[in-house]
Write the structure tokens for this entry.
Amino acid sequence: DTAVSQTPKYLVTQMGNDKSIKCEQNLGHDTMYWYKQDSKKFLKIMFSYNNKELIINETVPNRFSPKSPDKAHLNLHINSLELGDSAVYFCASSQGQGRDPNYGYTFGSGTRLTVV
Amino acid sequence: QKEVEQNSGPLSVPEGAIASLNCTYSDRVSQSFFWYRQYSGKSPELIMSIYSNGDKEDGRFTAQLNKASQYVSLLIRDSQPSDSATYLCAVNRHTGGFKTIFGAGTRLFVKA
């Protein structure tokens, strides 16, 4: 009955490879996000989808491509992985783009990506 | 100036004391504010939200908001070792497009 689930939990891969991270939420939320948390614990938004529509597309390398097949799923594909991509990637969901002050985000458990 | 600023800490308090965590934000028209707790190796979890000036209490947690000073804080009363975590302040920014901005977090240690 996990609310926001993402897979895999750990991902170790070599530079230059292509990898994907998958995320699914069963909360009925209409907005999903990808955040990157670096070694200093700073959470930075990468992308946001509302009802399958891309609404936030931060300045990230175009090697990162999100895809939302439906409002319950948001995947992240990364091409040509680089050492600097090593971080924890969190998927999150919210209702109404997080505008309701009484509700925040529900985060997935994270994917620790290590590029060697 | 960062959009959301927090003292990175670590903040160390003895068990049973009040822990005070502070956050300032730059967007004057921000309307709602959140505190998340993140244990080491885990994902952030929402513990409090506030959108009106003043205090909001929930159990041992009290969130305080002062929009004139662009300041939001979290007080943890009767701190327990299990409260040791990183606390992230998040602000719903409206200027330049709606977005939730997270601070870098304050590490809290509660000593038994």
Observations:
- Chain B has no helices and eleven strands.
